[in-house]
Amino acid sequence: MEVIEQYLDQVLRFTYLTKREKSEWREEMAAHLYSSVDHLKCQGLGETEAIERSIQQFGSISELRRTVTKETYGFNMKMIFGCALAGLLLFIVTLVGGLIANRYGVHNRYIELMPIFWITVCALGACLVFTRKRVDRLCLLSVPLLFSLGYLQAYFQVMYHYWGEGLTFNMFEKLFFSGVLHTSGGLESTLFASMFLGAQALIMFAISKNKYISILPFAFSIVYTFVHMLMFSLYYVFFASEQFSSAVTQGYSVFLNGNMQRLVEMGMSLIMAVALFVVFQGWSYWTAKRKLSSAS
């Protein structure tokens, strides 16, 4: 029956399922296949021919792989990676388009925001491989929430006067928008932002029990910071000798002052993500072991 095992290996390859999910799918499909082989052997077929016909009747590898991924994720892999790839391509297009538009004197906040929007779509699309059920999807959609508020405050002054006339409220801009890190209070604000992201990660893990989704706030922090640095660096490279008017900074020289803090922020986000992942992994292992011991 080695042929059947090899067939199932190929079906489950590149499905991005967990070990437990692959084991469950393998057990279910193997039961059907072995039952079919026994039935055909009772009808007089030899073992080799019975195995070949059972596999042929069961379906092609590509068809079964699509079925497995569709029933697990609600989408097939082509759709998931197609969404991520489309977001990445549109990020590149809007970034290059912004550089071209600036060459002809056209630059505004919408041109700066479009690459950020599409890299978010790209990241969310790619992260669908970590989701399984509706609560996972809701937690995933909540990941860029704080960063979205930061960008809305930076570009559209959303809630700037939320607490009353004359009282400025720009916490989200200072904590979750990397374009103002040169004025946001140094390392203290970075630590404060990490605490917010850590709380968000803990809440998501308590809801979904999905350790991969739960550490994504820190992954998104790294992505947004890196993309913002990349965007303004490209504008500086192409327009260093010309006046560059941004919606959120007075020029690259001002923006550059915050780059060291941005690198520190990216490093802290990475360390926090790894640390939380270890904690979540340990918690999952402990709870699983506890359930096993109580059941026995």
Task: Using brief descriptors, characterize the structure shown.
296 residues; mainly alpha; elongated
Q: Kindly state the percentage of residues in helix.
A: over 70%
Whole-number total of structural domains: 2
Largest sheet: none
Number of helices: 14
| General form | elongated
| Proportion of residues in β-strands | under 5%
Quaternary structure classification: single chain
Q: Class by helix and strand content? A: mainly alpha
Distance between the termini: 33 Å
Number of strands: 0
Low-confidence stretches: none
Mean pLDDT, all residues:
87
Topology:
Blueprint: H1 2-12, H2 19-42, H3 47-58, H4 61-73, H5 77-103, H6 109-127, H7 134-142, H8 145-156, H9 171-176, H10 187-208, H11 211-214, H12 216-239, H13 252-256, H14 259-295
Helix pairs in contact: 1-2, 1-4, 2-3, 5-6, 6-12, 10-14, 12-14
Task: Kindly summarize this structure in a few lines.
By secondary structure, this protein is mainly α. It has helices at residues 2-12, 19-42, 47-58, 61-73, 77-103, 109-127, 134-142, 145-156, 171-176, 187-208, 211-214, 216-239, 252-256, 259-295.
How does this structure look, described?
By secondary structure, the protein is mainly alpha-helical. It has two domains: 2-70, no CATH class; 76-295, no CATH class. It has 14 helices and no strands. The protein has helices at 2-12, 19-42, 47-58, 61-73, 77-103, 109-127, 134-142, 145-156, 171-176, 187-208, 211-214, 216-239, 252-256, 259-295. The chain starts with a helix and ends with a helix.
